[in-house]
Specification:
Belongs to the cytidylyltransferase family. This protein is of the alpha/beta class and 347 residues long. The chain is 47% helix and 8% strand.
Length: 347
């Protein structure tokens, strides 16, 4: 008997396009799908087809917790084909409650997740053996916390008993309920935010009184923001003025120290000006006490040929001769000694 080849779709290798929507049956492969164990799937068998993993949910307000769960499901086995089932609005409103996003918005959000290979619209709330066989699902991935709904304690109980359940880990601190709780808790803030962005009170389901209150609060917030901006600018201006004045004072101190140093260096006790003054005073005193003599070897004056020589002067009388004043202290002392010797000879 000739063996049939598997024609199951393979995981997408490019992320340039969104994931496909599942048709009536997501796998038209006519080859038999033998039941796999988790150990076999982790070893990479079978080699001729991917391991088909199914993960379902509501995926309202698609967030990082959803993406992490799908990432774990995608990486369970070496060759995983991930099918994600999204429940419709009718089933979700019936068993869980109202959603923020419509079913079509939730379908599109899942299609653009990089870990998803195929999106199954209008997924069933409870997985039946017929559904698993129809879509040739090998394993179901979900967190291990019992999910009580539709009159059962755990909708995945029979999947776990069949050995087809693979658990994933929840991401703490993020969930759709947490996001909705934040919005409800800060309802006034978000209502004012959307009014400021152009939404009408009717679109936000806000009464006339609340609308006026929110708009007044927005105006008050804008005034506070302007005051805060002015305060910040004034603080910045004062800081710049203080910085400039500090620089000016510092430069003034440096210049003052430099001026005082130069003044003391010039006019201080041992300054340059005192030394110059002392040198000049000593030089002037020495000039006053010992004036310069005329050079003795100076050449004689020649008579001009146009002038006649002056008559000779009469001989000087010794008794009328008076000594000329001495030119120096040494000359004065010599004169005094000669006069004293003359007196002694006369005696």
């Amino acid at each position: 008997m000739e063996e049939l080849e598997h024609t199951c779709p393979h995981p997408r290798t490019t992320l340039t396009e969104p994931a496909i929507f599942a048709a009536e049956t997501s796998c038209d492969c006519s080859a038999p799908h033998e039941k796999l164990s988790i150990a076999q799937a982790r070893r990479g068998t079978p080699v001729d087809r991917p391991v088909r993993v199914y993960a379902d949910g509501i995926f309202d307000l698609f967030h990082s917790g959803h993406a992490r769960a799908l990432m774990q499901a995608k990486n369970l086995f070496p060759n995983t084909y991930l099918i994600v089932g999204v429940c419709s609005d009718e089933l979700t409103h019936k068993y869980k409650g109202f959603t923020v996003m419509t079913e079509h918005e939730r379908y599109e959000a899942l299609r653009h997740c990089r870990y998803v290979d195929e999106v199954l619209r209008d997924a069933p709330w409870t997985l039946t053996p017929e559904f698993l066989e129809k879509h040739k699902i090998d394993f179901v991935a979900h967190d291990d916390i019992p999910y009580s709904s539709a009159g059962t304690e755990d909708v995945y109980k029979h999947i776990k008993e069949a050995g087809m359940f693979v658990p994933t880990q929840r991401t703490e601190g993020i969930s759709t309920s947490d996001i909705i709780t934040r919005i409800v808790r800060d309802y006034d803030v978000y209502a004012r935010r959307n009014l400021q962005r152009g939404y009408t009170a009717k679109e936000l389901n806000v009464s006339y009184i609340n609308e006026k209150k929110y708009r007044l609060q927005n105006q008050v917030d804008r005034m506070k923001e302007k005051v805060r901006t002015v305060e910040e600018k004034s603080k910045h201006f004062v800081y710049r003025v203080e910085e400039k004045s500090h620089d000016l004072i510092q430069k003034w101190e440096e210049k003052s120290r430099e001026f005082i140093g130069n003044f003391l260096e010039l006019f201080g006790p041992d300054g340059t000006w005192k030394q110059v003054f002392q040198e000049r005073s000593g030089r002037m005193l020495s000039y006053a006490l010992s004036p310069r003599e005329s050079p003795c070897n100076s050449p004689p004056r020649e008579l001009s040929p146009l002038r006649s020589p002056s008559p000779p002067s009469p001989p000087a009388r010794w008794y009328n001769a008076r000594p000329s004043p001495p030119n120096s202290p040494k000359g004065a002392s010599a004169l005094m000694s000669s006069m004293s010797e003359g007196d002694e000879d006369e005696k």
